[in-house]
Every structure is written in C-alpha cells, then in structure tokens.
Amino acid sequence: MIQHPLEINKIVKDDLCIKMKIQGNTEVIRNTEKTPESDKNMNVSGNEAGTESGCDQTGVIYEKSDLNELKYKTYNADGTVSGVSPASASSSDRSIQIALMNLGFYTGDIDGNLTSASMKKAIGNFQTVYGLTKNGVMDQSTKSKLDLVDSFRNRAASIVSENQGTDVIKDLNPVERKNFANIWTFLRLEMKVDAMHASAIMGNIKAESWFSSNNLQDENGNKKHHDPGYKYKTDDGKGYGIMQWTYPPRKQGLLDEADAMGLKPGDLNAQLAYFRTEMTSDMYCKREWTNFNAIKTLVSATDYFLNYIEMPSEEEAANSKEKRREYANQVYQLMYKL
Asked: What is the C-alpha radius of gyration for the chain, rounded to an integer number of angstroms?
C-alpha cells in the first residue's frame, strides 16, 4: 500500500515520490539458455519450457505448425518480426478492432467500423497510452504502432498460456493473466525497460494487486483481488489499482487521468497512462525512475522499486521484500526472452 513519504519514518526526500489481467493459442517453446546476469543474480526457478538445442539467439521463439515442423521467427530489439512489414498483422479493419479489444481499449462489436464514437475513443486512448498524438484516427503511424504492440502482446499471452503451471501464473485468473501480458507489453514497448527491470516492476505489482486493476486494499483479513463495487474516493486512505495508489493527490491524479480518457479509475489502461505520467514527471518520481533504470541486478532493482517508488511502511516493506524478490525472479525466468 502506497503511503505519502512524509507519513512514514523511512527516507527523507526533497521531492514527493509516488506510490503508486491471456489469450493465445500458439504453441510456443522458448529457448531456455540462461544469461550470465540471470545466473549471477538469481536462483533459477526451473519453470521454463523445454529447451531446443542449437539455438543460442535471444529473441527466438519457436512455433510448432500443424504438421509438427519446427520453425522459428526472429524478433528485433523493438519487438518487430524480422522480415515482416510493420503493418501486416492489422491488415483489416476487423483485425484492428480485435487488436484494440485484446489490449483492453475496445469492447464493442467487431463490425469493421473504425469511425464510430466507441472506436474513436478506443483509438484515441491507445494513442494516449502508447505515446502518439491523440486524434482518434487510425492513421498509418497508429496502425504501425498497433501492429507492433498487438504482436508483442500476443507473444506475451502465448508464453503465459503455455506456462500456466508456473508459480507466478498458476494462481492468476483469466483477467489477471490477460493483464499480465498487457502490462508486460506496456513496460517493454512504451516504458522501454529491459526484461530485468520489467520483471522487478512486475514482481512488485504481483505483490500489490495480483495484476488486478480494480483491486482494493484488503482489510481485516478479507482477501479479494477484485472489488467492482468500490466507490472511488481520493481521501479514504485505501490503496487501489495495480499499484495500490493511496495518497490523496496521487489518487486524484489517477482520477484526472482516467477522466481525460473517458474511463474509470479501475481501468487498466488509465492506470498504465498514469504510471507513465508519474515516472516521467519532475513532481513525482522522474529522478527515482532514472535511478531505478540504472540498477544492474534483479534483486536490487526489485528492492529499489519497493523502497523508493512503492514506498510502503517500513513494516510492510520488510514483510513483503522476499516475496517480491521471488515473484520478480519467477517473472524473469518466464519472460526474459521477450
């Protein structure tokens, strides 16, 4: 639960730091080559999929065809598929709607109409979350970005789908698994963090909310991951959302971001947009975000995010530190190739 920095006897800072659900049917086998950094800084969890010999290249995902022939695609550093044009996946208006639906921006009919009010809103909010000029029009730059994001999200969703028995995934419900893939995609493509830093953030989010965007702070031993009946208040002292925002100005900031997007504070994409606002604003955690990205090991990055960006009480931080490290390690072992 995020508290105001001045409310805890922890670290005195001269600026405020914010406290702030999978689809996929492709059968995927990922190369499980360990990187030196992962062996050095983590205990191997043993949850990887089967290893395919002869493949050393990070970023290769093997896909089994219907004929059981093993073939592979190589992905560039930005998530694009080598040899595939940027706008190939979202080649029809219906596929554009499906992509926006998978990403949580659209809930209407799949009718190919890209100019309806609901589609303009979906496109505009996608543009907001993924750093494009917001105009509600599916122009070429938006289509290319959507193709990249949807392709990356589909691969993340496939990894989760193929590894549902792993510790960090098996206790998530379908909404939380979908959110897992969407959050991972946002962190890697929009926040531009590497897999190690993304895993550190994901480990903290798992501990905070189980990747549930309408998760209200649990009280009196009543553990629930979803609280759709919560009446959002900025001054009730209750943590809410994937990062369990608690302090009134921050909850107000989330509300303002959601309002500007025509969404509710419990919407995942409103929370992702607000996360970026806080991590890139001088009045919040811009300096801490820069320091976080300079950290070289998974354990240290997980701890730093907890202590300087999450900033719970001393007692809560001490009680949850090992669990957050464990979650971060599990996420990294699952996702480090993507």
From this structure: 20
For residue 175, name the pLDDT band (cuts at 50, 70, 90): very high
**CA nearest neighbour of 301 among 324, 280, 335:** 324
CA separation for the pair 89, 92 (Å, rounded):
8
Structure tokens at 155: 């691969």
Backbone angles phi, psi at 245, to 5 degrees: -60, 135
Interhelix angle 195-209/314-335, rounded to 10 degrees, is 130
Mean pLDDT score across all residues of the chain: 79
Query: From CA 235, how far away is CA 121, in angstroms rounded?
Result: 29
Long-range contacts of 322-325 (CB under 8 A, 24+ apart): 323/207, 324/203, 324/204, 324/206, 324/207, 325/203, 325/298, 325/299
Please give, one letter per residue, the 3-state secondary structure of the chain: CCCCHHHCCCCCCCCCCCCCCCCCCCCEEECCCCCHHHHHHCCCCCCCCCCCCCCCCCCEEEEECCCCCEEEEEECCCCCECCCCCCCCCCCHHHHHHHHHHCCCCCCCCCCCCCCHHHHHHHHHHHHHCCCCCCCCCCHHHHHHHHHHHHHHHHHHHHHHHCCCCHHHHCCCHHHHHHHHHHHHHHHHHCCCCHHHHHHHHHHHHHHHCCCCCCECCECCECCCCCCCCCCCCCCCCCECCCCECCHHHHHHHHHHHHHHCCCCCCHHHHHHHHHHHHCCCCCCHHHHHHHHCCCCHHHHHHHHHHHHHCCCHHHHHHHHHHHHHHHHHHHHHHCCC
* Confidence class for position 7, pLDDT limits 50, 70, 90: very low
